[in-house]
From TrEMBL:
<dbReference type="Pfam" id="PF09848">
    <property type="entry name" value="SLFN-g3_helicase"/>
</dbReference>
<protein>
    <submittedName>
        <fullName>DUF2075 domain-containing protein</fullName>
    </submittedName>
</protein>
<dbReference type="InterPro" id="IPR000305">
    <property type="entry name" value="GIY-YIG_endonuc"/>
</dbReference>
<dbReference type="InterPro" id="IPR018647">
    <property type="entry name" value="SLFN_3-like_DNA/RNA_helicase"/>
</dbReference>
<dbReference type="InterPro" id="IPR003593">
    <property type="entry name" value="AAA+_ATPase"/>
</dbReference>
<dbReference type="InterPro" id="IPR027417">
    <property type="entry name" value="P-loop_NTPase"/>
</dbReference>
<feature type="domain" description="GIY-YIG">
    <location>
        <begin position="28"/>
        <end position="110"/>
    </location>
</feature>
């Protein structure tokens, strides 16, 4: 039984004053409201803009909005959610809930700032949140939403949205970073900051959140009503606005697929633009300097190495020469970024480096150590992706630890992770069937694999790449947004299509590139079974030859990344029988 109602009022001063006289709750009761264009929210001709708010005095707040020329011109209708059971905490939660879903729906632009999103506990929160679904469904029936909640929550627009409730360590990092940046701007100094975290700790979330927060501070006006519930409200002051006026900010994303997804989000976010989402080559070729460059997955930046195309090899030389006067082969893409920007923020996890062309591990360690020494290091520890708990990532990395056995290190333990669907399969067909079942139930269940099979279908669409246990499969047929593509459920994604993304369930195929040496009691690599040419290529320019030990580290990193994509569960199939027997010891 519903206890709420959604009242609709024209966005007009006379209509608001008339409406307010009809019920004392319109002037003195906690409510949540939406301001929209009144055209139903349909993509073909629906809402251009929408704004969500909460207030104790609906009449007064609506009249304040009507004093804003931009909102008065863009918006035409008010929807007020009224419920006798609501209190301030409930309204803050519902407001945040609707903002997140509206941003993820993707049919229009959300005009809110991102600094007021909350996720606080309060009395009977779960009971109230069940009623939120009813509010959502009525708004969807009215055309405000175009997709169901599961469809929205499974979308990249939702997962990569800047409208997030930050964890404690994320909020601390964002607050300290913005405060330090503003101090540096006052002192006219430049700094490099490191944000470090394992998979699922929200490095990309922090990067995108920072982009939106800085844009909102710069665009704020003296008469904007401050959000007293935001820990960032003190940043929205005139002095800070002036510091960020014409402040040029870019987000560097080395991976093509993730970059395209973030560009789609920025296209729908006021204050942000797809042109701010850059490749390292974009940064190097740009003639205009950047005030701040935020680099997501900075461990995937390249050192000098053979690029995927001759054009990029030429660009590497040209950019380095332009920036440093000579073709200095020791310069990396990180050097380009530092040369083209005054301030840098790097999102880093050295153990997600998966190719020899990536920044050298010793350079990453040096950057992290230096940032720690200068108190410019911000660790993220809260696990947001995998529902297996905080120690799942460490467990995965322990069972995939490269190198000779460490006599002083305890062996990996047989583990169960309560509430997490972790399974071991000895038949690929059965695992694929299970993944298809999970996809039908929850969506976003996919097969992924190490690059242990030739990509035959790239040149012959009729060919199959992986043929095991009576199952015939092909590699991903698209390099961008593969997870959401129509054919992905019957394909296999590689590290280059899933790094940085979430899945609900990941079915991980470990190929013959990774094997177990029973005599040495350690993991070994089969170089001939690894088909990523750039993943095992030597670097004659820098005089680097990559040994099997080097290759083993990259391959172990690949599988550790793949095994940490699944939010609800991870299924594992192992090709090498020796490794299968070894890893089976750690699965219940």
């Amino acid at each position: 039984m519903t206890s709420f109602e959604i009242q609709r009022v024209p966005f007009d001063k006379h209509a608001v004053r008339t409406w307010a006289k009809g019920d004392p709750r319109h002037r003195n009761w906690p409510v949540v409201y939406l301001l929209d264009g009144g055209r139903g929210g349909r993509p073909s001709g629906g809402l251009d803009d929408v704004y969500v708010g909460e207030t104790l005095n609906a009449e007064a707040r609506m009249l304040q909005h009507l004093d804003n020329d931009e909102k008065r011109q863009a918006l035409s209708e008010i929807r007020v959610v009224l419920d006798d059971r609501y209190n301030k905490s409930v309204c803050l939660d519902l407001e945040s809930h609707l903002i997140r879903l509206l941003a993820g729906d993707g049919a229009y632009r959300v005009l809110n700032r991102n600094d007021g999103i909350t996720d606080s506990a309060y009395y009977d929160r779960e009971l109230y949140r069940e009623s939120f679904r009813q509010v959502f469904e009525q708004l969807r029936a009215e055309g405000v939403f175009t997709r169901s909640i599961p469809e929205i929550e499974n979308s990249d627009l939702f997962k990569l949205s800047p409208y997030k409730a930050l964890t404690t360590d994320q909020a601390i990092a964002v607050e300290d970073i913005v405060e330090g940046l503003l101090d540096d701007l006052r002192a006219d100094t430049g700094e490099l900051l490191i944000v470090q975290g394992e998979p699922g700790t929200g490095k990309t979330v922090v990067a995108i959140y920072l982009m939106k927060l800085l844009a909102d501070i710069a665009a704020s006006k003296p008469d904007d009503e401050p959000d007293a519930d935001s820990i960032f409200s003190d940043f929205f002051t005139e002095g800070h606005r002036e510091l960020l006026t014409d402040f040029r900010v870019g987000l560097v994303v080395p991976q093509q697929s993730l970059r395209k997804s973030i560009q789609r989000v920025f296209k729908r976010t006021p204050g942000l633009s797809p042109s701010q989402v850059l490749t390292p080559f974009d940064v190097g070729a740009d003639d205009q300097p950047w005030d701040l460059l935020i680099v997501d997955e900075a461990h995937r930046l390249n050192q000098r190495a053979n690029q995927p195309s001759g054009v990029q090899n030429r660009k590497f030389i040209d950019i380095t020469t332009k920036l440093f006067g000579v073709d200095d082969i020791t310069k990396t893409q990180l050097d380009w970024i530092c040369a083209r920007s005054r301030h840098q923020i790097l999102m880093v996890d050295p153990e997600q480096s998966v190719r020899p062309a990536d920044l050298p591990p010793e350079l990453l360690r040096s950057l992290v150590d230096e940032a720690k020494g200068e108190r410019r290091h911000y660790p993220l520890t809260s696990q947001l992706r995998v529902k297996a708990g905080e120690d799942y990532i460490g467990w995965v990395r322990s069972i995939l630890r490269p190198g000779p056995p460490d006599p002083d290190a305890p062996p990996p333990a047989l583990r169960t992770f309560e509430g997490y669907d972790l399974r071991f399969f000895d038949d690929l067909g059965e695992m694929h069937d299970a993944i298809r079942e999970r996809d039908a139930e929850h969506g976003l269940a996919r097969l992924v694999a190490g690059y242990a099979w030739e990509w035959k279908s790239r040149n012959d669409p009729t060919a199959y790449d992986i043929e095991l246990d009576g199952r015939q499969l092909r590699w991903n047929t698209t390099a961008t947004d593969w997870i959401a593509s129509k054919t992905s459920i019957d394909e296999v994604g590689s590290i280059h299509t899933v790094q940085g993304y979430d899945l609900n369930y990941a079915g991980v195929i470990i190929g013959n590139d990774l094997q177990w040496d029973e005599d040495a009691q350690r993991l070994i690599v089969d170089r001939d079974s690894y088909f990523d040419k750039k993943g095992k290529e030597n670097n004659p320019t820098l005089g680097k030859t990559y040994s099997d030990e080097d290759l083993l580290r990259y391959i172990c990193n690949v599988y550790a990344v793949l095994m940490t994509r699944g939010i609800r569960g991870t299924y594992v199939y192992v090709r090498d029988r020796g490794l299968e027997a070894q890893l089976a010891k750690y699965f219940v």
